[in-house]
Specification:
13 strands, about 475 residues, 3-stranded antiparallel β-sheet, 6-stranded mixed β-sheet, alpha+beta, globular
Amino acid sequence: MANMILSFALLIFAASMLAGLVDSNTLMCPSTSSVSWRRPFVNNKNAGHIFNSILDSMRQFGESLHHNGMSFFFATVPQGTELYRGTAISKPVTRMQFLAFEPEHALAVVRTVNPKATHLYFHTYRTKRILRLIYIDGQSAAKSKKGVFDTQDFVIRDGTKPAPPSIDPPGALGDSERAVELCDVLKDKVDGFIRMQGGFETLLCSNQHHPPLRLVKINPLSLATKTNWMNLGQAVAARYDGIGNHRVVLNYDHMISLYAYGDLVYFDSLGLPRINNQSTWLSAAKSDLFDLAKRSTHQSHNHDWQAVVDMIVARYGDKIQYLASGMIRDSKEFISFVSPIMDPFIDYSHRDPKREAIACVAQFWPDDTHCNWWSCPKCSVAAQAIHRVARRICTTFSTIEVGDSADLIKVQNDFQSLQAWLGWSSFKRCRACTVDGICVVPIWPVGTRQEYHQPQCRRSMHGLIGSNNTYWND
């Protein structure tokens, strides 16, 4: 009897969708078991945040702006990838260790945290096999109290326990203790984690049993050499758009975005996302993370959703920013700018704004997703979020294009609202810097409050570290 009722309910739901009776803006997949069973869902409130998690993943610039990451990805590092470690130890490390993807990052860390060392060494390793890791997005290795550790302290660790104690480097804000706990929680499931601060790092939980690394060389370092912060900044800026060479491969179809778990994420007084550790959705997120870590393979049927969002941002990003800027002073000029953008999707023999918007949304959509919007369980969180973002963009352009005349203030407001809702990091990116300069965004411990709101080109790091105006003062 219960199955008959459920089947009837699903038929009504499907019919309502086809008839346009269900508001797709609040679409949730219907539950197919008990009331207590919950699964992530995407709506217009969280779609933009999830889209940005995909767009920014493993990219230094976007992850630095959206520093309180709220997503986990299964990640692999290929065999033969070179990793680096600076240390006061002259022998290969077999216990838990942090390894940098860039040599400048490892050198800066060792010279900063070992100021009184009598010997320093630079280790170079290569992976002997594929590493299975969990990528924690945002500036998840920054030593800050702004919320960068929320996902680690409340989702991976036991949220009922206090955060690890604050001690001096190398465990600032309890990070060494935190790392031990992270490895203990997911031991035997993954090799470790990927996090980011002034560069991406691998937290390798062990190199003792079935060691995944082989030592290439250990070089003694000069104690007289100090950290060149501008050189480090240039190395970091070189990874603004990605870590390069497929050194890390993420699985987007199985990403875990905490934005998709009901009221698990809230925004604090500064507008930063934080974990609501009282949410009843927390246990569901924890369970899904452990399932993610246990999967034996993650690359089959994995769509590169970051490539899809890159195409969307490349096509529309500058145009949206221009239309929202207020630089256009005439409504006809506004429409004449928008019309060519929508031309590829218009059948001028029979105008239909809805069909035009649908064609616009479908432009970059992969053919093999097997995902329909009336069969939610087949759609990944990534797919649902990207579809909603593309639909809002295309609908905004289509609605304005078909109007015979436009209220200039209204259409500019529409695009300003769209730009604010999207929140793409490219909207804040410096347009051009001199060859000896970099676009500075706050990356712990560097950066000011002004550069968080509007990144700036700089040719020096002077005044960006340790000043009263630093962004990272809590």
